Amino acid sequence: MTQSQSHRIADIQITPVAFADPPLLNSVGVHEPYALRAIVVLHTESGHYGLGETYGDSAHLARLERAAGFLRGTDVFKLNQIAELVEDSLRGDQGQGGHGTGGMVTTTSLADRVLSAFNVAALDAQGKILGLPVSTLLGGAVRERVDFSGYLFYKWDRHPGHEPDAWGEALDPEGIVRQARTMVERYGFKALKLKGGVFPPEQEAAAIEALHQVFPGTPLRLDPNGVWNVATGIEVGRRLDGVLEYLEDPCLSAEDNAAVRRAIPMPLATNMCVVSFNDLPEAIERKAIDIVLSDHHFWGGLSRSALLAGIARTFGLKLSMHSNSHLGISFAAMVQLAAATENIDYACDTHWPWKRPDEDVILPGALELAGGAVAVPEAPGLGIELDPEGLARLHQQYLDCGLRERDDTGYMRRIDPSFELASPRW
Ligand SMILES: O=C([O-])C(=O)C[C@H](O)[C@@H](O)C(=O)[O-]
Ligand SMILES: [Mg+2]
């Protein structure tokens, strides 16, 4: 190995990008025509680089820039020091905005959210320096392929004022089954998740039943993002006995989810009521959930996600992964992490099929989703390379599109002024 002394961070570039996103409906509104991300490119004095990807909301970008200022000169192998410096950079920060989830999850740890992309980029650089994949740095791959689920969304056939997209409309069980057929044909998914919280629960339960008829034996999940009350969670959970693999976030609080969990036959998963290390004690004590859907973007990157995996195992919690609209760097990071995490118990979520294949910031070919899984890249680091032209193109798109925050609710209200946020809604 080369002297680690020379692997200090010489420079960090943070580039906001925008990529096309279809009109996917959820409990807080609808996806805007572009999804925002921030791309972190870290350069070492020794001439290596590392990649990270995170939210592109403006408050988050400002924090990334500030943290980057603190990190210059730090050795990429000193992950603890990187975490400490990120915390230092956030002193006095009141934590307003920059959550990156359109208001859906606002209680994640500020420090972990900002740290994440730097931790990923440092690990990528370490791997490139050492000639080892990140999965090896995380303890070694325990699987060669990582399973993902097909992530189904209710959607319009187009953004208002735009041409229809190739996916078409999905606003009822038939539309959802049609979408699922395309997803399965194209990517071979062996598990399917429906994003709910859009229509009354009985309609969403009917969509799940329709999927069960067409794909018997396929594990199914339903996620209303916490907009149901306890009685609805119990009713739908009981109705879908033998049909759902797990129910995800029927309610928002640990207390309400615990009440649902006690009364339904299937396990309960969350990426809303357990979103930081601080949430774990209460959820464990209340027996609120069975499965943590981890997300390295808000659990502090890959090192701290590995710590979460250890805690989950200790307390008998199952583990899988949540996703938001993302590009190839995040996908590669998820794949490397899942490869090195023994207790990934279910096929992970990904928004990958919703991204246009010709829009990314990495060179094509490293991540192929086939048979419902991605082969873990064995090339050094995350196993991907930056595509500078793709980065420049998506940055220009960011400048041109005018969006600066993810705002599913504001967009929905411009289209349907009567749209109301309410939790619980049903
Ligand atoms: O599992 C989840 O809660 C998600 O995937 C959250 C996302 O924000 C999803 O609702 C979306 O993309 O609209
Ligand atoms: Mg969820």
UniProtKB/TrEMBL annotation:
| Stretches assigned to the Mandelate racemase/muconate lactonizing enzyme C-terminal domain | 173-267
Q: Does the keyword Nucleotide-binding apply?
A: no
**SUPFAM superfamilies tied to this protein:** Enolase C-terminal domain-like, Enolase N-terminal domain-like
InterPro entries, A to Z: DgoD-like, Enolase-like_C_sf, Enolase-like_N, Enolase_C-like, GlucD-like, Mandelate_racemase_C
Name the pathway.
Carbohydrate acid metabolism; D-glucarate degradation; 2,5-dioxopentanoate from D-glucarate: step 1/2
Q: Which cofactor does it need?
A: Mg(2+)
Query: What are the entry keywords?
Result: Lyase, Magnesium, Metal-binding
The enzyme's first-digit EC class, named in words, is lyase
Catalytic activity, reaction form: D-glucarate = 5-dehydro-4-deoxy-D-glucarate + H2O
Q: State its Enzyme Commission number(s).
A: 4.2.1.40
Q: State the superkingdom.
A: Bacteria
- Identify the Pfam families for this entry: MR_MLE_C (PF13378)
Signal peptide positions are: none
Task: Spell out the family assignment given in the record's similarity comment.
Answer: Belongs to the mandelate racemase/muconate lactonizing enzyme family. GlucD subfamily.
Stored PANTHER family: D-GALACTONATE DEHYDRATASE-RELATED, GLUCARATE DEHYDRATASE
Protein name according to UniProt? glucarate dehydratase
Organism encoding this protein: Glutamicibacter nicotianae (Arthrobacter nicotianae)
Q: What is the lineage of its organism?
A: Bacteria, Bacillati, Actinomycetota, Actinomycetes, Micrococcales
